[in-house]
Fold this sequence. Notes:
Elements: E1 4-6, H1 16-23, H2 31-40, E2 45-47, E3 50-51, H3 67-85, E4 90-91, E5 94-95, E6 97-100, E7 105-108, E8 111-113, H4 118-139, H5 142-147, H6 149-166, H7 181-207, H8 209-217, H9 224-244, H10 247-252, H11 254-262, E9 269-272, H12 274-277, E10 286-288, E11 293-296, E12 299-301, H13 309-312, E13 324-325, H14 333-345, E14 352-355, H15 357-360, H16 370-391, E15 396-402, E16 409-411, E17 415-426, E18 432-433, E19 435-438, E20 444-447, E21 454-455, E22 460-470, E23 479-487, E24 493-501
Antiparallel strand pairs: 1-13, 2-3, 4-5, 6-7, 7-8, 9-14, 10-11, 11-12, 15-17, 16-17, 17-22, 18-21, 19-23, 20-22, 23-24
Helix pairs in contact: 1-2, 3-6, 4-16, 6-7, 7-8, 7-9
Bound molecules: iron/sulfur cluster (SF4) (2 copies).
One iron/sulfur cluster binds next to helix 13 and helix 14.
Protein name: Cytochrome c oxidase accessory protein CcoG
Transmembrane segments: 74-91, 119-138, 188-206, 226-244, 372-390
Region (Disordered): 280-299
Amino acid sequence: MSRRISLPQVSPTHCKVCYAADRDGNAGESASSGASEALLEPEEHVLSTLEADGSRRWLRPKLSMGEWWKRRRVVAYVLMVVFVAIPHLRVNGKPLILLDIAAREFTILGKTFYPTDTLVLALFMLSVFVSIVLITAITGRAWCGWACPQTVYMEFLFRPIDRFFEGTKGKGGKPAQGVSPLWQIARLGVYLLLCMFLAHTFLAYFVGTERLAQWVRTSPIEHPSAFLVMAGTTGLMLFDFLFFREQLCLIACPYGRFQSVMLDEQSKIVAYDPVRGEPRIKGKRTHDDQSGQDTVRGKPAGDCVDCHQCVVVCPTGIDIRDGLQMECINCTQCIDACDDVMKKVGKPLGLIRYSSQDAIARKPKKLLRARTIIYPIILVGVFSGLAMAISSKSGFDARILRGRGAPFTLMGAKEVSNAFNVRLVNRTGEEQTYHLASLHDEVEVEIIDEDKLTLPPGESTLLPIRLNFPSYLTLNDGNESIELQVSDQSDNERTLSIKVLGPRR
Ligand code: SF4
Ligand code: SF4
């Protein structure tokens, strides 16, 4: 029963723990004894998706086709198209996104990164993390309700299929009686086809569309691992969308658990307004001019007519009137359902609305909060670092490493040699041959293995070289700073600074 994050002004009779304590006349007893009795004597539903006997409570949320649902539907279908299109899009001949784990290459926005790009990858991960924290602090769980693939595909692809094959009462809810086995099989067939398509699309992000098309055209025996990955992904998707469903958000997704530390009282959430709605009571309202309050059968009545429409539409099975809960994915279905009811009973819309815990408690809005100041500052810093790290990448990487063994070798009386390895990474999409030249007239570059000067696209090598120079160059300090220029056929250039070592006077 620890799922509730906070309860903004909720009537105690609607909290399940207190409800049980009230019911048993133990409201004045210690919290611990009251809570344990309540846990031992659960209500009809222990959790939103668990019956009192421990069995799964299958949810079949009714659909409310209000304004928010229409907006979410547009966003959802745009996102579906984007998800399918991304692996097919190219920037400068390279995929927009390709996470080739096998080849250890990550192409993002047409730029290829390698595991050696630790700084870029670390900054990228950090920017994603800080963005999530910032967006959640401002907009609550907007990601869950509007953009998470689980919600998008479940609510706008698979549930419509359920409603098509199983039929519904009205706009949603329980299926019509007597769905024929043939229709059920047809429904499973459509699920299978869609999950296979989505699994192929998902796989394209990791192997690219060309290789995927080639695999699709050939027998699975020729590429058994890829086939197994695709079959496993299809199976997982089927398991998720057919069976696991909202459990993924409630049990498996870590984001829902973290939200309590990412939200504050000013964060946007989908919230019920208990000040306006309570006391909730069914029945026709009579307005009492003296008190200015509505009454039902002589009792004071809030705007909530206790119709439960906000509950029957909820895809996670909760009652938003219980306050902010971890299970709420901010899908806005309860807003639409309640607005519909409010229209019918002639009350202002927005009894359930996008708001914040402070706004619901009638506390002033604070635009500047620690989170909305500190997180953007961190984010600007991380993005600047990321932009600099990316822009500093030319068509290749070159790093110089001192060779093992003696710091220098005397070649006769007047010449010195230093051994180095140059780590070269070809970041272009074409084969490149590299050229190395010293910017110091007296230093000669000797390539030990000329074959290693040519690199296929995306490949890296360790090129052994020697820098030879006259011994007087280092006589003062025993070392001298020189510069080495590395260039490729595409006119990309890099200048490396090196300290050569030699004898001193
Ligand atoms: S409480 Fe409302 S917003 Fe939250 S998941 Fe349920 S229907 Fe969606
Ligand atoms: S839909 Fe609105 S009026 Fe009906 S129970 Fe929910 S909050 Fe109350």
